[in-house]
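Aim 2, interim progress: modelling of the PBG-bound target.
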Amino acid sequence: MLFPDYRPRRMRASEPLRRMIRENRLCADDLVYPLFAVPGKGVKNPIESLAGQYHLSVDNLVKEAKAARDLGIPAVILFGLPEKKDSLGTSAYAKDGIVQKAVAAIKEKVDSLVVITDVCLCQYTNSGHCGMVEKGVVDNDSTLDLLARTAISHAKAGADMVAPSDMMDGRVTHIRESLDEEGFSHLPIMSYAAKYCSSFYGPFRAAADSSPKFGDRKTYQMDPANAREALREATMDAEEGADILMVKPAMPYLDVICRLAQETDLPIAAYQVSGEYAMIQAAAQKGWLDLEKAMMESLISIKRAGAEIILTYFAPEAAKLC
Ligand code: PBG
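Predicted structure of the complex, ligand included:
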């Protein structure tokens, strides 16, 4: 149908009309809130690179998690800044590690909240890499056991879901089998399936002190130029037993989300990463963007592309508006 028979503006004439034909809606249920746990007590230090986000000691983290739950947000994802780093990333799987303590405290004090843990080594290794460094290279297979140990220790602390973000090959199989052996066959895995080697992680790395001390992550994270490879990565993770597939970052990779949504029947998550958040915050502070509108538009674009789960630092602010 062409003009003048068809006039698309007819259906845009008023807000209720627009609401009637709206194809996608954002709601608090879609959101996952990332939180940064640090050692200590009473700590709530603003993260410079992420306006409005904080380094939180466990006591304050529990409060933040509760507030998110009260806003209707179903899940948080935890990142930890350990007291010490070493070559084996031992603080990642220590029984009294920072994430383990944070999980236990949230599970004890906050009900009706899914606690997801990020499973990776880069915050815990002194190389700042996501895996074991052998002869100057990030070694795949020797990393798998340490990732599995990390996932198990999170599970033992009470985590409801683990999210491996390391991009080692075969880690979903390895983590799944190890969890099953330890009696955690009920625990879902959200795999960072298509995780790109992105400059948009910059503010996170400043916040989590997890920048690689040499080289970059190009030998394990994906090349931003590739889309079909993401489908291969995601298919692999699905076959290895992932329960949710994640694309990361979100906005520069909406095409990947969209393609994956057509290919998989698993739930799709997208991570609106630190750089995406920081860009909007910075532009808003300058008065160049309307913070709320840009935030909501960026989030609905991720939904429209086909993700049903959005990990975002905007979670509480967005939940208040939807
Ligand atoms: C750890 C990890 C990173 C992020 C989530 N998990 C950083 C990285 O891969 O360098 C990035 C999150 C963000 O930028 O908000 N591997």
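Residues 104 and 157 are 5 Å apart (CA to CA). Residues 118, 120, 122, 130, 165, 201, 204-205, 210, 273-274 surround PBG (CB under 6 Å).
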